[in-house]
Design goal:
4 strands; elongated; two-stranded antiparallel sheet; single chain
Length: 64
């Protein structure tokens, strides 16, 4: 059972995350030949204040 764990910055809509899960599932299916029903995708949304970029957090840099 292939598992993909993704860490992304918070701020995406439920629809965007659903699209991401679909795309990653398809990529794993195509590259590994795993049945869709066996593929798991876990998405961790990280608060901007907890995402570091060049010594600062994404929140203070205005990232998204």
């Amino acid at each position: 059972m292939p598992i993909a764990r993704l860490s992304i910055m918070e701020g995406r809509t439920k629809e965007e995350i659903a699209d991401l899960i679909t795309a990653v599932t398809e990529a794993m299916h195509n590259s590994l030949g795993a049945p869709h029903r066996n593929i798991r995708v876990l998405v961790d949304e990280v608060p901007l204040s907890h995402w570091g970029i060049g010594g600062s957090n994404a929140e203070s840099l205005g990232e998204k």
